[in-house]
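Retro notes, structure queue

What went well: the backlog is down to a handful. What didn't: a couple of records were mislabeled last round, so from now on we paste the full input next to the output in the thread. Example, using U32 family peptidase from Emergencia timonensis:
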Amino acid sequence: MKKCELLVPAGGERQFIAAVENGADAVYVGGKLFNARINAGNFDDKELTDAVDFAHKRGVKVYVTMNTLIADDEMKKALEYVLFLYEIGVDALIVQDVGLGAVIRENLPDFPLHLSTQGSVYDLRGVQMAGRLGYERVVLARELSFGEIKEICQNTEVEIEVFVHGALCICYSGQCQMSRYFGGRSGNRGECAQPCRLPYKSFDEDGRLVKTFQHPLSPKDLCLIDHIGELAEAGVASLKIEGRMKSPEYVAIVTSIYRKYLDQFYEKGSYIVTAEDREALEQIFNRGGFTEGYFYENPGKELMAGEIPKHRGIKIGKVVKKVQGSSLIDVKLYHKLSIGDGVEIQGKNVTGNVVTYYKELKSGLTRIGDIKGHVEHGDPLYRISSKEQLAAARKTFENKTFREGKYLRRTPVDIEFCCDEKGFAWLTLHSALTDKEITVKEGPFEESRNRAMDSGRIEKALRKTGNTPFEARTIRIEEGIDRIIQISAINDMRRRALEQLEQVLVLRRSGGNFSAYFISEESHGNTLEFYFYDWESFYNYVMPDDLNALDVDKVALIPLVDYEKHYAEIPREKMVLPYITNISKGEEDQFIEAHFDAICEHYRDRGIYIGNLSWLQAFLAAGVPVYGDYGLNICNAFSRGLYCSLGLGHCMDSLEILDDGLGAFPLMITEHELQGSRLIDRKKERIKIVRRDFSSQVTLIPESENLEIKKIKDKISEGKMIIRIYC
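Corresponding output:
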């Protein structure tokens, strides 16, 4: 069985070193351009080159994220950056934009591509389509169960990557518009402001307040430490830890624990996670505990963090009283607390500090300080940070850079040393990281008249690998070397051999260039599309007079399942097109599978809008006209050209480049069953929760109509071919 890779995030040099030193098989990073964590420290070109070299000398792979959508005017710069990454030896690119991916595949076919979780792939059909597009690995959506993951792994040659630890998005990755809509900062462009972590009030259809979480869109962090063996057995290629915004201490602790149990699984076939390691994971970061997400089933309310969307720490005691006239409090402790630990009292008010005063009282209580702010008897006390834990983690990466330091992780080498009949000494290095044999020759050396050289002295010299990335695993020395070879000469041979091995392991590529082309879609006359979320909204819609008066073709879009259920009620002369929801996992897919032949027969002349990779090939192969919907996230001519070359007709732009004023477009699509009918945020923005009887998902849309007739008229006069209004 091929061993499963442990893939670890790094937002900077210290995180990168922490990842490698604590056992990562591969590290994923972002550069300064085109990555979905643009606010992380990230790596400039020199730092990235050094990081790749540092990793490769230790047998660690480096993947670079270019997992944002690329605009037409950015493509030239993006491709120049791709070429730089190719030349410095990056092992793979993690890509969201399929247009970018298509150009890379066409021009740099030996540069491996991984489709990001932003690609919204959630089933075997989607994985197979990604494979057809040239992706050798797919990062699955986080919403899949173990059974679904296993089925995919068993039926595809495409490598599968699965998140096992870290922050969860409440929305399917790649389909979220919340941050862009409310703050102009798009997650698909690397600038997510995390509005899902903000407080919202929930209301029912009649406007009554629904009692639910203060932060109803904020999930706990994922933790699958108990299931990494199952995932490895199922055929998952890579276990991914989330967290390019996290501290190096976080990276060190989480990596070391997952490394420990993945190794135990391969050595013993099973493992049991200790209470200490569980606590260590919670101590470094948790949002009110962890969740296993959708690993076995929809977790419902257990998915959510609840009242506190940030790190919660570990509950270690409670407040008994505040010492009058001071910043000291008396607490009852259940767990260890030390000076230097960070604490928080999470009562009606949240307050805390670093513990600078600690005294055990005769009463059995403990007096601590300096705690400012109001606290009350019974308020829970949480340890937010452990000085001891952080200090231990820092030992693995402090005082180390990509170029120097006393490294823990080294590449084992096998060394052979001998002398030929002409008096030349030969040193040969072997490493599992390369098929190339490194050989250094020195001499000739004078024959010894007394006795053979002491092999122990030779071995001692050969083992002095110092601060290099290497350590001697085995050393074989020819017996009875009867030449006078100075130890300094042996040291020099060792240094030269190790330097040559370093050069061999530093991967460089050349010869790449780009000569891309794309296929333009056919032009059509002006068309006004009206996108309806369900049959009821379509049936009851009254078109504004200003829109009705426009001399353009008008097309209604309704869900495919609703179209099928009301097929006989829709006049054939009316232009109504069906669409498959961008995320159709569950009930919608089951309906399509059960009625596939009838659906193909019904729409072979009319066509279907499809917004996910999963159904494209099936309908194209059946001869049904397919139009690309907004869920495909088409932001440039290259993406549009790719889909046209596959046989799609018109392709709708991504919501990323949709102007405001065109209706209530989707903000989120989620598996989580939210409470109530609407959410209202602190600024009184209203969000409608859309539930559809054929769908397993919930969609969030703005409750305001947000329709600007003048803008629509302007677009028509500008010659914009297809304008869509979300109703």
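Agreed that this is the format going forward. Reviewer comment attached to the example: Residues 248-268 form the longest helix (21 residues).
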